[in-house]
């Protein structure tokens, strides 16, 4: 069964450094998402991406964040200058259809980012 | 403000017993209600999706109900197994497809 994959599984970085989290969505999916989950807290929406552009973003997704689909398979989340509070689990998700109300989102296993 | 509240925060049940988790939402305009299972350190996995016109949906031993009038949903786990130990997350989706996550209910099934 196809699945969303994410690399690395765990990333440790120093405050102020740039990090890139990578995701490979399911191949025929068109809509991509990033979420984060701070330890012990709820999952929070960051950004959705369709047709090579951001379709929606939350207030968390400020100028320090960017997303890119550099080729036909990868979807990346970049944090330019990491802060301690960026430490969290970051989940990528993808879905097949656009604006389908009962559209299923498939989540990857997550990347645990630790900022020291 | 769109919100999803879940109760209880956590519960411990004996293997083989049933349990029911609750979810109240205030998302508007409402489109659908989803329940996810999240194992520790893993991504959420979908259990059920219900639109506003659906009252109940089952997935194996998991049965979700939805009352769109009172904006309440429940997830019932029948004959619990050790592998059911996880966080169960309620997600309300608005008409634009945006997800609003609940904080989850942590379920621990003991032998």
Mind explaining what this structure looks like?
The complex is a heterodimer of chains A (116) and B (111). Chain A is an all-beta fold. Helices cover 0% and strands 49% of the residues of chain A. In chain A, the strands form two sheets. In chain A, strands 2, 4, 5, 6, 9, 10 and 11 form a seven-stranded mixed β-sheet that branches. Chain A is globular, with a radius of gyration of 13 Å. The model of chain A has no long low-confidence stretch (mean pLDDT 91). Chain B has 111 residues and is mainly beta. Helix content of chain B is 0%, strand content 59%. Chain B is built from no helices and eleven strands. In chain B, the strands form two sheets. In chain B, strands 2, 4, 5, 9, 10 and 11 form a six-stranded mixed β-sheet that branches. A five-stranded antiparallel β-sheet of chain B has the order 1-3-8-7-6, with no helix packed on it. In chain B, strand 6 and strand 7 (62-67) form a beta hairpin. The termini of chain B are far apart. The interface between A and B is medium-sized, with 24 and 21 residues.
Please provide the ordered H/E string of secondary-structure elements of chain A.
Answer: EEEEEEEEEEE
Low-confidence stretches of chain B: none
What share of residues are in beta strands of chain B? over 45%
Q: What's the story with the biggest beta sheet of chain A? A: 7 strands, mixed
**Number of E-state strands of chain A:** 11
Instruction: Report the β-strand fraction of chain A as a percent range.
Output: over 45%
Overall mean pLDDT of chain A stands at 91
Largest interface: A-B, 24 and 21 residues
Residue-averaged pLDDT of chain B, rounded? 93
Described by strand count, sense and barrel closure, the largest sheet of chain B is: 6 strands, mixed
User: Which structural class is indicated by helix and strand composition of chain A?
Assistant: mainly beta
Low-confidence stretches of chain A: none
